[in-house]
Amino acid sequence: MKRTIKAAALQHACGTNPEENLERTVQGIRDAHDKGAGLVLTQELFRTPYFCQHEEPGRFDLAESIPGPTTEVLGRLARELDLVIVASLFERRAAGIYHNTAVVIERDGRIAGRYRKMHIPDDPGYYEKYYFTPGDLGFTPVNTSVGRLGVLVCWDQWYPEAARLMALAGAEVLLYPTAIGFDPADDEEEQRLQQHAWRLVQQGHAVANLLPVVVSNRGGLERDAPGERGQHFWGASFICGPRGEILTEAMADEDTLLVAELDLGRTEELRHTWPFFRDRRIDAYHGLVKRHLDGD
Question: Is 52 a catalytic residue?
Answer without folding.
Answer: no
